[in-house]
Structures are given as C-alpha cells and as structure tokens.
Design a protein that fits this description.
With about 220 residues, the protein is mostly helical. It folds into two domains: about 100 residues, Rna Polymerase Sigma Factor, Chain: A (Orthogonal Bundle); about 80 residues, Arc Repressor Mutant, subunit A (Orthogonal Bundle). The protein is built from nine helices and no strands. Helix 2 packs antiparallel against helix 3 and helix 8 crosses helix 9.
C-alpha cells in the first residue's frame, strides 16, 4: 500500500454512525495507522474465521485464510471505495482465498461457489413435518445450539456460506450477493435450499430421537 499517494474514501452523510466509525478506521489505516487496522481485525476476525472454516472444513486452512485475507485487505486498502461495508468487502477476499485453498487440495468434491443455480423451481417450500415433542422442551439451549451447528456444518459450502452470511451474520440479501459476487436471485435460491435442508436434517434428527425415546418406554 503506497502511503504517499493515499486517497481517503469520503464519508457519505447517509451512513449509520457504526458505518461512519468503520470508514474512519479504514481511512486511518490507509494513512499507516496500524492500530486502526488492528481494530478492524478484532471486529471481524471471528466471523471471517468461521466463514473460512465453513468453506475449507479445515482449521489450519481457515487460519491461513484469515491471515491471508486481512493481509490482502491491508495491501489493497486503496481499492476499498467505501460504497459498501468493509465486512462485505473482506468477505469477498476471504471467500476467494478459501476457494483457492480448496483448488490447491484437489481433493474437494463440493461444488464451487461460482456454479450457476437454477432458481426456477425454488419459490415453493415443501411441507415439513412438525417436531413432536417440542425440541425446546427436550433440550437445553446449549444442546440446541450444538445440534444446529452440526446441521449447518453438514450443508454443502455453496449453501452454508450464504446461510452463514444471511441468517447468522445478519447481512441483507443484497450485501450477501455483493460479498459473494452472486445475483440476488441466486442468493435467495441458495438460502431457501439451505433452510429447507436444515429443516429436513433437524426434522429427521428429532424424529429419530423421539422414536428412540419411545422405544425405551
């Protein structure tokens, strides 16, 4: 990053206070303030690491992706225009780094995030059997979180990444599309499929547990 030719991103008036504070950190980092960039790392390293784990399914690779993503972000801060969240921008960098890890392995059998998805038949959700008895009655919150995490980990990367950004990290559909370089319909398609697959997995899990419980009565 050439500090002598730094061009600071303007701070649009319509941004939220949080977004303005974030952009101020970016601008300070552009001028060589490493403490400002460290603050950005602390703010997002947990989310980026989880995203990298979701894609690579390997802790060592995820740690590499985390470091490489923030290093590339720092080296190319001059390319961040401030038109979107810094998190959206670094997500795209992290996804690219994670996919490079998968390609280098040459053993990954999952589908690339670049694959085109047909959205023509994804508008009608299937009926899913109700959970009986109520999972919240049977399990503690920690147990439910563990069950959900395991179900999410079982999703294919193309669905898991969209689900994580949209439903876990709370990005909008448009922000998720921008971060992953997808169309909005593709994000909606993958998110719907992820949710349906999760409900199927969880429905089967709780039904099996219920059947097991009744078998011992």
């Amino acid at each position: 990053m050439a500090l002598e030719s730094v061009t600071l991103a303007p701070v649009p008036a319509e941004l939220t206070e949080e977004a303005k504070a974030e952009l101020e950190l970016v601008n300070r980092a552009r001028t060589g303030d490493t403490s400002a960039f460290s603050a950005l790392i602390r703010q997002y390293e947990g989310k980026i690491f989880r995203l990298a784990m979701n894609i690579t399914q390997n802790r060592e690779d995820a740690e590499d992706v985390l470091q490489e993503a923030f290093l590339k972000a720092y080296e190319h801060l001059d390319q961040f225009q401030g038109n979107s969240k810094f998190y959206t921008w670094i997500v795209r960098i992290a996804v690219n780094q994670a996919l490079m890890k998968l390609r280098k392995r040459k053993t990954d059998r999952s589908v690339s995030l670049d694959e085109q998805i047909d959205t023509g038949e994804d508008t009608v959700a299937r009926e899913i059997a109700a959970w009986d008895p109520d999972p919240e009655v049977q399990y503690s919150q920690d147990e439910l979180n563990g069950i959900l995490t395991e179900a999410i980990d079982g999703l294919a990367p193309i669905y898991k990444t969209v689900f994580t950004l949209r439903d876990v990290d709370g990005l909008s559909t448009e922000e998720t599309a921008e971060a992953l370089d997808l169309t909005v319909p593709a994000v909606k398609s993958r998110l719907l499929r992820a949710r349906l697959q999760l409900r199927d997995k969880l429905t089967r899990f709780f039904k099996r547990k219920g059947d097991d419980a009744f078998a011992y009565m």
